[in-house]
Structure formats: structure tokens, C-alpha cells
Amino acid sequence: MAKDKSKDIGLVKEIQKVLLDDSDFLRSLVQDNLQKLLEAEFEHYLQAKPYERTESRRGYRNGRVTVPKKTLI
């Protein structure tokens, strides 16, 4: 059983190395998560989902435009 566990740990470390060394993968992962975080913050603040009309809505949003960002990752 101990041998199987050490093989699994070695495999996990190898996969992590491959994924983290790929800057495009890491960049897209960070970018996607930040976008989801910002969208969730907007929904919480506005008290409405995109395109949803409610009486309790606290403001408006103009949508979003995909603009390429330069990151140092």
C-alpha cells in the first residue's frame, strides 16, 4: 500500500510540474478565476444577475468587453 501511495504522490508532482510550467495554462486559470470572482461581486453588490430586472436592484452594469491583459505570470 505504501508503494502505491508514493507512486501517486510522484505522479501528482509530475502533473503539477507540467501544468505550472505552462505559462498559458496558469495565466488562463488565474484570469478565469478572477473574472468569475468579479462577476460574483457584481451580482452580490447589484443584488441581481446579469440582464435580471428587480425592484431591489442597486445599480446598473454595462456588460463587459474582452480585452487582452498582459500579466507577468
From TrEMBL:
One GO process term, biological-process aspect: DNA transposition
Molecular function terms, GO-annotated: DNA binding; transposase activity
InterPro entries noted in UniProt: Transposase_mutator (IPR001207)
Keywords: DNA recombination, DNA-binding, Transposition
UniProt entry tagged with the keyword Transport: no
Family: Belongs to the transposase mutator family.
Known role: Required for the transposition of the insertion element.
Protein name per the record: IS256 family transposase
